Amino acid sequence: MSENQKHPVTLLFIYLGFLLAGFFIAQFLVSLALAPFLGNGLTQLGIIFSDPTAYPEYKNVILFIQGMNTLGGMVIATLLFSKKYYKDKILFTLRSPQEMYMFGAILSVIFCLPSITWIAEQNENMIFPAFMSDFEFWAKQKEAELKVLTEYITTFDSLGQFIFGMIVIAIIPAMGEELVFRGVFQPFFIEWTKNKHVGIWFAAILFSAIHFQFYGFFPRMLLGALFGYMYIWTGNIFVPMAGHFANNGFSLLLLHLKNQGMLKMEVETTAEMPISMLLGSFIIFCALVSMMFWHCHTNFKNYEIE
Q1: Confidence tier at 92 by pLDDT (50, 70, 90)
Q2: Are 89 and 111 in the same domain?
Q3: Cα(254)–Cα(286) distance, rounded to whole angstroms?
Q4: Most buried of 208, 239, 272, 295 (most Cβ within 10 A)?
Q5: What would the mean pLDDT of 235-261 be, rounded to a whole number?
């Protein structure tokens, strides 16, 4: 059996090694590059990351480290793995026109955001049975910590910082997470289970679980499955990347406008949204996704995309 014919589980462990090595190398190089510019060198980085919100003057440093870790640990590591074991098929075996489906993915995600927000609200209001009280306490504590950190990271002092944040929070994660979860893990799970639907949902569950936010688990899982089906239908990794960017980027833009006082309505709840708007956006989303599926089904008859 050649390198490119290894068992899926063997390849999975090799890939995990690539990811870990990518994160460690990226972290090491970034730390070395930043150390001369910080008062106490690497010790200062440890102090900053122990409580980032206490050091607002280092927000750009935190964003830079986050971006470089994702770029090195996800994007570069996955591309190197793909080159060696996948013959670059993640990026270069594309069977669909990028622009049309990418635009469709962006519109679909924007119109599904109200529904995703509503599902997130139901997820947040879940009540656990008594025997899961320890898990509930942990989940709420983790959610509160991440909420503070998210608010800190997504509050910008200038247009330049907002653009930098958009690159780090929306663009790079959309590339990295789609390469990892749709480009590599999803095909692994499909080959392992011999069922594309099971593979898509396994990858979506893993994608959501890895964020360690139970109170956002279900909406993130559903988005992951949506991106998975977009990848299966179009055969083009740039399509779920575009959808992922739309989710991160549009949400970040709305938050920024709200923080700047340019948007009066609450953007993290559907409480102020008329039911007609919620249902209307969901119907448009369903129509857009159906059009993408049927267009792919009609144009790629040689592929099993159902």
Answers
A1: low
A2: no
A3: 23
A4: 239
A5: 92
| Same domain membership, residue 219 and residue 142 | yes
- Chosen domain end from 93, 116, 142: 93
Give every CB contact of residue 266 below 8 A, 6+ residues apart in sequence.
Answer: 258, 272
What angle, rounded to 10 degrees, do the helices at 42-50 and 59-70 form? 100
Whether residue 165 is found in the same domain as residue 284: yes
State the amino acid at position 127 in one-letter form: I
Average pLDDT of the chain to the nearest whole number: 86
Give 37-100 as a 3 state SS string: HCCCCHHHHHHHHHCHHHCHHHHHHHHHHHHHHHHHHHHHHHHHHHHHHHCCHHHHCCCCCHHH
Residue in the block written with tokens 């060696």: 84
Whole-angstrom Cα Rg for the chain:
20
With 60 as the cut, is the pLDDT of residue 130 above it?
yes
Same domain, 169 and 35: no
- 305 and 164 assigned to the same domain: yes
Contact between 169 and 75 (Cβ < 8 Å): no
pLDDT category, 96, cuts 50, 70, 90?
A: low
| 31 close to 42: Cβ distance less than 8 angstroms | yes
Which residue range(s) make up the domain with 282?
A: 95-306
- Residue tagged 């669909």 (tokens): 96
Give the pLDDT confidence score for residue 302 in this predicted structure. Answer: 47
According to the model, what pLDDT value does residue 77 have? 95
CA distance 249 to 23: 24
158 and 216, same structural domain? yes
To 5 degrees, how large is the angle CA 143–CA 20–CA 78? Answer: 100
Distance of alpha carbon 285 from alpha carbon 221, whole angstroms: 17
Number of C-beta neighbours around residue 105 at 10 A: 29
- At residue 212 the predicted structure's pLDDT band, cuts being 50, 70 and 90, is confident
* Domain identity same for 20 and 159: no
CA distances from 78 to 8, 34, 157, 192 (A): 16, 25, 33, 19
